[in-house]
């Protein structure tokens, strides 16, 4: 329907609007009233001529628009806009003078200077309006396509970075776990086998549960296995407290965000040799905290600017929960505390 209207009905309407606008402007200058002319044959000829050439004008403009689209495809830029307008004005002025000025020169009393001005100004203004209406949809589609493409590229880059950051945990974790099992085999083969079983379950989670988010209960189960594996290599004097809120169940969370905090606690624990691990869900959202005793002169990773660990975690949180998380780490007296808050879990 739209195509038929633009092809068959719109051109004569466009031609009549231009004709009547030019005539009214000329009559306001000359004092004539073209609707009172006795030679209706001449008026009819002018009307029919304007209708016929309007089909030519529209055909040329549509060809020109298709050429623009072929040249720039879906690109949108101010350079393209300026280029199209220049071509449109050049073609429009050329056709107006070839078809309209020439016709005016051989009819009525010839082409006066004001005739030439009106013939060039009026159709030019109308073609600019026509161009704006017709091309707005094309430009809007091109703009949206460009935005979608930019978002896709950005998303691909973020996904690549996230995969790289997540992969960094694997060798770090593998080294610690294998080191634990290695020393355990010297003391108790049976316990070493149990550790290997837990280790394989941890690997399975890391290698196969790669969907964007996981149920927080799965993440907690993973952490429990990790903690049990770490306990094996820890001293018997370690006082460990683990408290996971029963409300944490099917809520979705991005995986392996809590692991670095637990890992650091086991790595740097000392002094009074205790670790407290807690996860709760309250009005503030999801809160995961780890506290551990440290020696007075210990060197902790609070100020580290690179490598695997807290800096890696900070970057992942910025990508996954922009503006919706809070990570606080610090040492006070002989206690190191790390707290991760996520505003809400879906």
From TrEMBL:
Keywords, alphabetical: Kinase, Membrane, Transferase, Transmembrane, Transmembrane helix
GO MF terms held by the record: kinase activity
Domain annotation Signal transduction histidine kinase internal region: ranges: 160-238
Pfam families named in the record: His_kinase (PF06580)
Domain of life: Bacteria
Keyword Nucleotide-binding: no
InterPro entries: Bact_2-comp_sensor_kinase, HATPase_C_sf, Sig_transdc_His_kin_internal
Transmembrane regions listed in the UniProt entry: 5-26, 46-64, 85-106, 112-133
Entries under PANTHER family matching the protein: SENSOR HISTIDINE KINASE YPDA (PTHR34220:SF7)
Protein's UniProt name: Histidine kinase
Organism: Danxiaibacter flavus
Species classification: Bacteria, Pseudomonadati, Bacteroidota, Chitinophagia, Chitinophagales
């Amino acid at each position: 329907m739209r195509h038929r209207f633009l092809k068959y009905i719109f051109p004569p309407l466009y031609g009549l609007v231009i004709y009547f606008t030019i005539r009214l402007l000329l009559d306001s200058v000359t004092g004539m009233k073209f609707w009172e002319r006795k030679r209706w044959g001449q008026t009819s000829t002018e009307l029919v001529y304007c209708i016929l050439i309007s089909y030519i004008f529209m055909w040329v403009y549509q060809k020109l628009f298709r050429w623009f689209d072929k040249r720039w495809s879906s690109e949108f830029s101010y350079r393209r806009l300026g280029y199209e307008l220049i071509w449109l004005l050049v073609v429009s002025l050329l056709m107006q003078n070839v078809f309209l000025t020439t016709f005016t020169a051989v009819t009525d009393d010839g082409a006066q200077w004001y005739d030439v001005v009106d013939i060039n100004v009026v159709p030019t203004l109308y073609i600019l309006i026509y161009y704006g209406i017709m091309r707005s949809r094309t430009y809007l589609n091109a703009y949206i396509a460009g935005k979608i493409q930019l978002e896709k590229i950005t998303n691909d880059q973020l996904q690549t970075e996230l995969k790289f950051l997540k992969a960094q945990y694997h060798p770090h974790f593998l080294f610690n776990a294998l080191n634990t099992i290695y020393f355990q085999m010297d003391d108790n083969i049976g316990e070493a086998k149990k550790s290997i079983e837990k280790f394989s379950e941890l690997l399975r989670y890391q290698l196969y549960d790669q969907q964007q988010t996981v149920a927080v209960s799965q993440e907690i189960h993973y952490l429990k296995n990790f903690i049990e594996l770490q306990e094996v290599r820890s001293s018997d004097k370690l006082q460990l407290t683990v408290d996971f809120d029963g409300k944490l169940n099917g809520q979705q969370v991005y995986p392996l965000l809590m692991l670095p905090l637990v890992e650091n606690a086991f790595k740097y624990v000392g002094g009074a040799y205790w670790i407290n691990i807690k996860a709760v869900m309250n009005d503030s959202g999801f809160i995961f905290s780890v506290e551990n005793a440290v020696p007075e002169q210990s060197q902790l990773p609070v100020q580290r600017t690179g490598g695997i660990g807290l800096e890696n975690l900070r970057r992942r949180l910025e990508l996954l929960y922009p503006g919706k998380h809070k990570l606080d780490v610090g040492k006070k007296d002989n206690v190191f505390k790390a707290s991760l808050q996520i505003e809400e879990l879906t």
